[in-house]
Amino acid sequence: MSATLEAARFPALGTTAELVVAGPRALAPALAVLEAELAAVDAACSRFRDDSELALVNAAAGEWVAVSPMFVAALDAARRAARLTDGVIDPTVGVAVRRLGYDRDFASVAPTGDALRVRFSAAPGWTAIELDRAAGCVRIPRGAALDFGATAKAWCADVAAARAAEVAGAGVLVSLGGDVAVAGPAPEGGWPVAIGDDHRTPLDEGGPVVSVVSGGLATSGTSARQWVRGGAVLHHIVDPSTGAPAAPVWRTATVAARTCLDANAAATAAIVLGARAEAWLAGTGLPARLVAVDGTVTTVGGWR
Amino acid sequence: MHRGQVRDEGLRRIGSITRWVAATAVAGTAVLAGLVYEATPGRATSTASTPGGTAGPTATTGAVPDPGATGGFQPPDQAPVPVQQAPVVRSGSS
Questions:
Q1: Is residue B65 part of a domain?
Q2: Cross-chain CB nearest to B55 (options A187, A212, A302)
Q3: What is this model's ipTM?
Q4: What is the span of the domain harbouring residue B4?
Q5: B4 inside domain
Q6: Residue B56: pLDDT above 50?
Q7: For residues A235 and A102, what is the distance between their CA atoms, to the nearest angstrom?
Q8: Is B93–A188 a contact, with Cβ atoms under 8 angstroms apart?
């Protein structure tokens, strides 16, 4: 006997949203939940909308700004990632990312251009973000800018999967740009998920496939969002300690955790940590798979 | 039958019919909404079967994860295991 899986795929948050459900008549209600979560996260967290709450907070750096509970939750997610990684992932890299030329939706970023004439500098640091939870207000240091790019998609995948599973009464998988969260009863044998450099690679083009039965699985890498300035290859994963793109040690880092948020935080931290990633990941106890730039595969934490 | 009893009986019947019509309308609207959703153009939807894929015993809670949780990293209930199945999505950088 086999369970019917139904799926939907559409563009969202500057990437691809994918939804898979394991249960009859579950797709429509699950899709409605996912679309609502995506719209709410986009309105709160987009760097590329002038009217997003994140844009308003950045524009008013140095001043207190009233924000929604959704923004507070997104900020909590970003601060959790920063705390768990000792600041290797930091939401105050907004200015650094802009300096690199990634200042608009990636589809609009010119693939090549003149050399950048910028001086990289460390991010202000996530502990400088002030949150008055009772008043629902946020203040960031003058001159700083927030970027939730390292956490918003994964956190949204967690929330959408959990809520969709509850509403649809079925097992649900949500993937936002390859950040995968599952909730509810998994199909027998788990959810089969392929691993690769780029989440857009067609499913029939090979690569290892693993079974995921709960929590989250995320892959970070530098190959999907690259651009060239003056012959230098740049990418979107910034080392907060320098403000520059992370050194190219790993092509991808894939991590599994209890939530997609934590999995993605660890995967992105591994890219930033470079040669120190393997030891750091081993200390987290999370199963992980690292692919070096030369293709060498290293696994830690019980990843088989 | 007394005229008042006839009127009360009529009102009871009307009330019963009204409730039945309302319940049918709500149920019908829900069914139609689902059908319209699935028939909406522009949605890339697909159906597939997973071998031996009845809903298994593995059930995670539907609780929404708390991003403000103060604990540390937690591994998943089960580490990813290699399988020989057609994948449903690909995890890769974006």
A1: no
A2: A187
A3: 0.85
A4: 1-41
A5: yes
A6: no
A7: 9
A8: no
